[in-house]
């Protein structure tokens, strides 16, 4: 569209009267507004009084486009997990810390993309796409997490190339057998890690084991964000690694080749209850539910309402949660001597 404005020239009444009737000067005001089609002024473009593009309008348009690109790029990008070992170490720190070299874990999941961990079928406020992918390989995340947990527990940790093995007491190697998180109406996570501590020179295995963690949750009224998903992954992975280190500490030697277990070199936890400081004592289970006040049955025996903490003899039990208006929840739990097992369940509506 082209807008053409006439020129404005003010004359005195006397000058206007002297002109012949019907005669108009070229300088007289043309009060008509002409609107013509023109491809030179497209929709959405802005021009100033001189007919030139407005600098301010162009700048605003560029900023808006840049902001849109930035937002879209951030929403569609992979997820960065900020791993934290938490406040409490998995086991009291040894008086004379062992030197442990952490090898790069192996990804044994069989996934084509080593960074892929699941699918997204629910709305995440700052994420787009249907696949949940990390910024790093899953095996790298697990290796980094183990190194941080061991260091937090008081051990001297080294990683990287073969030079880092020099002077170490033990070598930790392992595999990621399962690592999946699906974001949906109910988030579901599963992590399975196998680990092995071995002597650096002989290669003899000192301890090996596998830990599995399964959990589900509701994201809540506000839903998920990148930060809440990252925190959920970090907390779940930390539970698996803490249990691995706690189990291994019962049999690992104080020094490579020694017969005394690592636990002998560890000071007793001063805040631990007497019932939990003995390796042969009963274990303990802490049960919580959402909503709370669900009835707790273990092995068919009623124990009380959630949240509740119960001391049990070591073994495998069937835990049942019942609450009016909610579906009954059943699962197997393992009680270990001198250890705390935590159970958190969100009960579905009937």
Structure in words:
By secondary structure, the chain is α/β, with parallel strands linked by helices. The chain has helices spanning 13-18, 55-76, 138-152, 226-248, 274-277, and strands at 2-4, 34-36, 99-102, 106-107, 116-119, 131-133, 156-158, 170-182, 187-198, 205-217, 283-290, 295-298, 301-305, 308-312, 315-322, 329-335, 340-346. The protein has three domains: 34-73, no CATH class; 80-267, ABC-type transport auxiliary lipoprotein component (Rossmann fold), CATH 3.40.50; 272-350, Immunoglobulin-like, CATH 2.60.40.1120. The chain is built from five helices and 17 strands. A hairpin with a 2-residue loop joins strand 12 (295-298) and strand 13. The two termini are 63 Å apart.
List keywords for this structure.
350 residues, Rossmann fold, six-stranded mixed beta sheet, alpha/beta, flat, Immunoglobulin-like, 5 helices
CATH third-level topology of the largest domain: Rossmann fold
Within CATH, the superfamily of the largest domain carries the name ABC-type transport auxiliary lipoprotein component
Judging by the overall fold, what is the CATH architecture of the largest domain?
3-Layer(aba) Sandwich
Beta-strand segment tally:
17
Mean pLDDT: 76
Global geometry? flat
Low-confidence stretches: 1-14, 24-46, 69-74, 87-93, 256-277
- The whole-angstrom Rg is 35 Å
Count of helical regions:
5
Can you write the helix and strand succession as a string? EHEHEEEEHEEEEHHEEEEEEE
Distance between the termini: 63 Å
Task: Assign the CATH class of the largest domain.
Answer: Alpha Beta
Strand content: 25-35%
| Overall number of structural domains | 3
Question: Which structural class do you get from the secondary structure elements?
Answer: alpha/beta
Portion in helices: 10-25%
Largest sheet: 6 strands, mixed
């Amino acid at each position: 569209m082209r807008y053409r404005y006439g020129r404005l020239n003010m004359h005195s009444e006397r000058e206007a009267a002297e002109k012949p009737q019907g005669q108009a000067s070229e300088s007289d005001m043309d009060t008509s507004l002409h609107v013509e089609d023109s491809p030179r002024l497209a929709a959405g473009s802005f021009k100033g009084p001189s007919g030139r593009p407005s600098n301010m309008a162009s700048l605003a348009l560029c900023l808006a486009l840049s902001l849109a690109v930035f937002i879209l790029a951030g929403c569609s990008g992979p997820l960065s997990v900020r791993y934290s070992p938490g406040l409490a170490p998995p086991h009291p720190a040894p008086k004379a810390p062992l030197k442990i070299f952490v090898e790069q874990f192996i990804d044994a999941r069989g996934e084509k993309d080593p960074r892929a961990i699941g699918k997204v079928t629910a709305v995440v406020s700052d994420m787009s796409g249907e696949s949940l992918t990390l910024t790093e390989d899953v095996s790298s995340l697990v290796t980094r997490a183990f190194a941080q947990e061991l260091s937090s527990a008081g051990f001297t940790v080294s990683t990287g190339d073969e030079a880092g093995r020099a002077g170490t007491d033990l070598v930790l190697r392992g595999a990621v057998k399962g690592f999946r998180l699906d974001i949906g109406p109910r988030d579901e996570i599963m992590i399975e890690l196998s680990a092995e501590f071995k002597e650096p020179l002989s290669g003899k295995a000192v301890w090996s084991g596998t830990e599995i963690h399964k959990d589900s949750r509701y994201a809540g009224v506000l839903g998920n964000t990148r930060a809440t998903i990252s925190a959920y992954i970090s907390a779940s992975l930390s539970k698996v690694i803490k249990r691995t280190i706690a189990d291994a500490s019962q049999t690992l030697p104080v020094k490579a080749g020694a017969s005394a277990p690592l636990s002998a070199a560890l000071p007793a936890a001063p805040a631990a209850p007497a019932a939990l400081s003995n390796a042969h004592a009963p274990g303990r289970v802490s049960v919580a539910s959402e909503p709370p006040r669900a009835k707790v049955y273990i092995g068919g025996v009623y124990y009380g309402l959630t949240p509740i903490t119960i001391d049990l003899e070591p073994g495998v039990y069937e835990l049942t949660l019942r609450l009016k208006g909610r579906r009954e929840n059943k699962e197997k739990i393992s009680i270990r001597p001198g250890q705390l097992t935590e159970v958190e369940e969100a009960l579905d509506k009937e």
